[in-house]
Amino acid sequence: MFLWFHKLGSPPHFYRIAGKWIPWLTWITVLLLLAGLYGGLIEAPPDYQQGESYRIIFVHVPSAWMSLFIYVVMAVCGAIIIIWRMKLAEVVLISSAPIGASFTFLALVTGSLWGKPMWGTYWVWDARLTSELILLFLYLGVIGLHNAIDDKRTAARAVAILALVGVVNIPIIHYSVEWWHSLHQGPTVTKFDKPSIHWSMLLPLLLMALAFQFYYVLALFHRCRAELLRRERNSKWVEEL
Amino acid sequence: MGGYAMFVWPSYALVALVLWLNWYLPRKQHDRELRLLKRRLKAEHK
Amino acid sequence: MSHRLSLTQAFVFLLRRDLLLALRNRAEYAMPLLFFVLVITLFPLALGTSAELLARIAPGIIWVAALLAAMLSLDSIFRSDFDDGSLEQILLSAHPVAVLVLAKVTAHWLVTGVPLLLAAPLLAEMLGMPGEAQPVLLLTILLGTPILSLIGAIGVALTVGLRKGGIILSLLVLPLYVPVLIFAASAIENAASGFDPSAQIYMLMAFLFLSTSLSPWATAAALRMSVS
């Protein structure tokens, strides 16, 4: 098992294995998305207080979760890059950044589209929204810094440091709704006692979250393969393709 | 959608668009890169 | 011909050297302070003479100006050393780079942060900030400007080798500055309205301790990467 992991770390093997998994991932993602959308848009009843607009939750919350998760993945890659200089970690980090930025952007936009009918405003400068916005800037900073440095291996070390420094923001976002009173609602799913959301709404939410997870891996694999080709274009294993 | 359609559907549409782009664009880049490499290799072997 | 300096001696040496360099380049180092004053002066001009409005947003104005001035001054921490090769010498030395970095950042703060501390009361008066808030203003600047120098140093270290480093630097460093801005401005506003600012002050202290202990390491790592 460990040997398999070790093999996975080499670019040509990762390229091949990722290529084999992609069709499976695509199907699983599509199925999960359809199941989640069906559960969320058709099966789940309208909310007692919010009517139909609450359905945005099924894309808003998974996007937000992914935005945090992907940054943590980047930070882990950053640590691996600094300690072991693993090439694949460099590729995964820089490939994850646009995906994470997209999810952060979606979380912000869907959140504000939800906020307008419900609480009367597209935006408010409370702790969670502000720190999520800062997260978007951090993602853009990673992408920008990586672009600015010509030697991509040096660039990888630079963004590794940036990712690790910025990971401080993640707990701030997550706990911000507990530390500060704000317009944003408190934690309902990740509380450790019984979640205070009804099962008919929780299930589609979890399905969508799982779908987004698989989607992330799928999109990541596509990006990594493209990036690997670009980086290793002069190496032997690429020529043998 | 109980009058909230203007907010719900654009949200889902935007999510669909962004997810599709993140899936489609890397694939296109990958295929383009592959074609370029093939062409280069053929030119070298001549 | 090498004399082994102790760590403390190395620290003091670097500190004194940077301060001396700054003293000789007084004009260059006066500019961020001038910028600070000018930016703050723009606001009364732009917002008309509404004294009440000005007094209400004075904490925010002063702190945003301090942030911008800090960012402008960041380049000077490592740029000249990078250009003339002394940065590599620092990295090659037997002493832990993080401590040497701390010396340079301390020098930077003394030269750029402390002047802000001295100018702030005058500017606060100009904006009509209530007198009760002034001690808190000074406290937040005292606690906050070192944080700006420390965190800014990480950003400079990451970008010192780049051509258009200045723009990227702002993009990198501003998101990290935001918590300081939020807590500092909130502390002063609380004090101005008569509420207790101690929670925010404690947060600033926590940030200061955190950044003093951790950021020199990150900066050292970033420097090694930039110089390689």
Description:
The complex is a heterotrimer of chains A (241), B (46) and C (228). Chain A has 241 residues and is mainly α. Chain A has one domain. Chain A is built from nine helices and no strands. In chain A, helix 4 packs antiparallel against helix 5 (127-148). In chain A, 44% of the residues are buried. The mean pLDDT of chain A is 84. The radius of gyration of chain B is 20 Å and the shape is rod-shaped. The model of chain B has no long low-confidence stretch (mean pLDDT 85). Chain C is mainly α. Chain C has one domain (7-227). Chain C has helices at residues 7-24, 26-46, 51-74, 79-84, 86-92, 97-127, 134-159, 165-192, 198-227. The longest helix of chain C has 31 residues, at 97-127. The two termini of chain C are 27 Å apart. Chain A binds chain B through residues 46, 51-53, 55-56, 59-60, 63, 95, 98-99, 102, 105-106, 109-110, 113-114, 116-117, 215, 218-219, 222-223, 225-226, 229-230, 233, 238-239, 241, and chain B through 1-5, 7-8, 10-12, 14-15, 18-19, 21-23, 26-27, 29-30, 33-34, 37, 41.
Question: What order do the helices and strands come in, and which of them pair?
Answer:
The complex is a heterotrimer of chains A (241), B (46) and C (228).
Chain A: H1 2-8, H2 11-43, H3 57-84, H4 87-119, H5 127-148, H6 152-166, H7 169-179, H8 199-231, H9 236-239
Chain B: H1 5-45
Chain C: H1 7-24, H2 26-46, H3 51-74, H4 79-84, H5 86-92, H6 97-127, H7 134-159, H8 165-192, H9 198-227
Helix pairs in contact in C: 1-6, 2-3, 2-6, 3-6, 3-7, 3-8, 6-7, 6-9, 7-8, 7-9, 8-9
